[in-house]
Each structure stands twice: as structure tokens, then as C-alpha cells.
């Protein structure tokens, strides 16, 4: 019996190792496919709406993709404009950094006994290394932009064909299953479609809310470029638990550079802590969590695992994929213990926010 159990555990570990190795090796192929799958489910109601006015399936799919590209282009234009504004303040930022560096030199001289010449020699050495690092990261960023454009092109192509052949894909899945299980399989497919649409649209609403709250708070505090930095920090919340820390870093740095008082960065930190509390306890659980229903421990684990396997793309993709896996576990008897392990305890009555969002979603999709 012990040998049998040991053999099963060994087989399971080998299987997990092969799956992880396969995911890492096939990352370049799988990541665009998964993004395209999520995007095709998101745009499916849009293409169906368009098809009511234009009775041509191919044309409706292309128009839905064009609408998506228009939204993406508008966001990209806004980001590039704001980044250009920040770059235009380079001289001002440089002078303020030098002023604060000089003040810091006096403080260091007071507490460490290191004179300004020694500090400047050390600073010049570190600056040269930092400059080299910036150039290397700049080159990596340019390559990353090229890879992003290529990846987005692949995603759009895959999305088009996934929508076009969605009927055949559904028949293929059903043909792999015994006919007596077709009704259960269709229920799973319907729940997966509903989860993806609700998750992405709900996540977009949640990110917009916290981004707007961040922007309002930073603007009231008088932080330069507060609207852009607040919205950017809200978008970075797409990566749970990690994006919020990264998003708060830039406004705090701006407050340290532009403002003379340390109360400003403290105020920025307080604003982000308050907004994050609202997002974690009200916005995200009520708008997004009501559909995915994954507990916090499972979410943290899957974000870390996704980052280790696919980087940032894995952090974003693995949450809805784990939600889909949980739906499958709900309908397969041997896998139900896994569903219990992944589920959130709060499976009670729907709250006001979830009901309100469902009404909006129903109006959009009908």
C-alpha cells in the first residue's frame, strides 16, 4: 500500500514537472493563444451585437477587433503624451535632484564624517554604472516594445480565427466526451464563457475605480502629473498584491523630488493605503471576486507561480485560468476536493454591487 502511494505521488510529481517544463518551453506560442482566447470571449458579445446590424460574421468580427484597436490606440496615445510631458520636465527634475543631493551631502557629512569631495567621487562612480544600466534597460525596452507589437498582432489574428471557428471548437470538445455528459459539458462551457466575460469587464471597472481614486487623491495633494500616475497605479493593480506596491512607488518618488516636505510622500502613501483598502475590501471582491471566487491564498500562490513560469503575462493570465480550472473541478467528482481547496468561503447571497453590475452586463450583452 505504501509503495502504491509512493508510486502515485512520484507519477504526480513527474507529471507536474513535465507540465511546468512544457509551459516554460512553449511560452512564446501559448501566451498569445491564451490572451486571444480571453479576448475572443470578451469581444464575442460585441461581434454578436454588430452582426444584428451587419449580417456578415466575418465583417462583424473584424469591426469588433477594430473597436478594440481604437481603444488600445487611445490608451497608448494618452500614455505617450503623459510620458512626453514628464520627459519635458527633465531639466527641472535634474535641478531639484541636485539641490536635494547637495542637502543630503551636508547631512551625510554631519553624521558620517565623509566630506563632499569623497561623496562626489562615489556619486560619479555610481552614476556612471547607473547610466550604463539605464542604456541597457532602454535597449531592452525597445526590444520589448517590438515584441509587444508582434505579440499583439498574433493575438488579433488568433482572436479572429477563434471567433470564426468557435462553433467547430465547441463541437470538437463535445466529440471528445461521452454523449451522456454533453449537457454537463455545455454547462461548463457556458460557465467558462460567463466567468471570462465577467472577470475581464469587472476587472476593468475595478481598475478604473481605483485609478480614478488615486488620480483624485494625488491631484488634491498637488503631486505633479498626479492624474497620469494615479491612473497608471490603478492599471498596475491588474497584478494582485504586487502591482499596488509598484504603482505607489512612482508618485512617492515624484513627491520626494518636487516637494520640500516629507509630509507629501507620507500623504501619497496614506492615499494609496486607503484606496487599496477600499479596493481589497469593497471594489474588487464585490465586482470581480463574486465571479472568480478564489480564496486569497490560492490567488497569491497562482500569481507567484505564474510570474515564475511566464513572467508578468503569467501573473495576469493564471488567475482566470485557475478560475476556469475551478469550474472544471466543480463538475468532475474526483476533482471536487481541489475545488473546495480553491474556493472562497464567502459563497453566500450576492451583494448590491454584484447585482448592480450583473444588470449592467445583461443590458450590454442582450
Unreliable residue runs: none
Mean pLDDT: 76
Shape verdict? globular
Helix tally? 14
Determine the fraction of residues in helical runs and give it as a percent range. Answer: over 70%
Class per helix and strand makeup: mainly alpha
Order of helices and strands: HHHHHHHHHHHHHH
The largest pleated sheet is described as: none
User: Roughly what fraction of the amino acids lie in strands?
Assistant: under 5%
What would you note in describing this structure?
The protein has 366 residues and is mainly alpha-helical. It has 14 helices and no strands. It has helices spanning 2-25, 27-53, 57-88, 90-112, 116-164, 166-175, 182-221, 226-236, 243-258, 263-292, 296-310, 312-330, 336-342, 352-365. The radius of gyration is 25 Å and the shape is globular. The mean pLDDT is 76.
